[in-house]
Target: D-ribitol-5-phosphate cytidylyltransferase
Amino acid sequence: MEPRPAAPRPRLCDSLGADQTPSASTLNAARAEARPAGRRAPAVAAVLPAGGSGERMGVPTPKQFCPVLERPLISYTLQALERVCWIKDIVVAVTGENMEAMKGIIQKYQHQRISLVEAGVTRHRSIFNGLKALAEDQPDSKLSKPEVVIIHDAVRPFVEEDVLLKVVTAAKEYGAAGAIRPLVSTVISPSADGCLDHSLERARHRASEMPQAFLFDVIYEAYQQCSDYDLEFGTECLQLALKYGHIKAKLVEGSPDLWKVTYKRDLYAAESIIKERISQHICLIMDTKDENHVGHRLEEVLKDELNHVKVTSRLPCHTGRDLDQIVSEQCYSYVCVNVMTSDFEEIRKLVNMLEESNLSILYPVVVISVYFLDYKSVPFDQKMENLMQIREYAKEVKKRNILLCGLLIYYPQDEQKLQESLRQGATIIATLIKERNSGLVGQLLVA
Ligand SMILES: Nc1ccn([C@@H]2O[C@H](COP(=O)(O)OP(=O)(O)OP(=O)(O)O)[C@@H](O)[C@H]2O)c(=O)n1
Ligand SMILES: O=C(CO)[C@H](O)[C@H](O)COP(=O)(O)O
Model:
């Protein structure tokens, strides 16, 4: 039996940013990095069954294509697997009628390493079709048979590298492995007359989740021997490895986020989790170096209000160089503090950089333009005329998934009122970033 590969190493893919696909040289470097001396890293591929109709979701669109933050659910799962640079191929099984839509998603969100196969009428048949694509070296296929294959539902978007590595490592040793979770409800067995026959002791049972991983030959041979009944009604790949391959899969404790999107409530939960994850970093761009200026006080109040969020500040003159760094850190929330001017020059520069970075292809980027309205120095009507440009400009940039709105904070005012305005401003900023509500683009809010 092959020795276990080394423990998980830092992801080389991270240095490229989780949403970017590593180059071939980085993949090779990652493999070399992850390969202890003398041990060969297994060739790993993934099969994603995505051919269901999502009946339990109760909407016409199959749930894998339902939008979350205006992006199809399946795209998040693909992104999660693409982050893992040692998965060389990702085979997705979709129905013929959804093939073009799937190709469009791959192109729009710049997914890589994806191959498409026709789904089957059941989940097992879809998976089997995916395995066939990996098993047979068709003349024009760029796919090759992997040593280990991951099977993961396309509607489980929150899968991390660590659990993938655990199931793959275990599959190499045991032949099969799968993620499990504690049961939330007790499992019961009803009798023919619809009454309780018996219940299972919940603590002694687990829920089978995904990802699962198998030595390719183990699961492929199991599917080839599968009865029609199993292909039609089965729901558990680990059971096929046991029944047809006599392999007892290694069970790996998974994280709470491995759940499968099945009902409509799961879409709302997925959107909430994604919003929370992309709101963990705020970049504050100041247009003044004056450390004593009120704009820097807003930074302090924001840090105080949002103690779990990373707030980094930048000056426009450094923005270009620094922004590349921020983009690679996956920052999707920008607060531009304008104390010196109410014109749009700085905002336009930032928006142009964000567009060039393609950052807003995957997630909506929030840009909040904060104006300290020194109503004593500039006639109010002249300033408002300037500021009202935001409405039209915001409509324009919304098309590129950038959500722009304005925030006015009166200034100067007595210390207590100013502190109150700053706190109100921080609350408004936090809400705009957390909610990412496209209905508010172009609005001018007042703290
Ligand atoms: N013929 C099928 C049926 C299901 N799946 C996929 O298997 C995964 C898990 O199945 P499930 O949650 O049951 O999806 P649906 O069958 O679409 O849901 P429902 O049972 O509510 O119709 C999903 O990614 C689904 O697209 C598939 O590839 N081929
Ligand atoms: O949890 C799982 C174990 O492999 C599968 O995702 C689940 O069984 C799929 O069943 P269904 O397609 O009916 O949702």
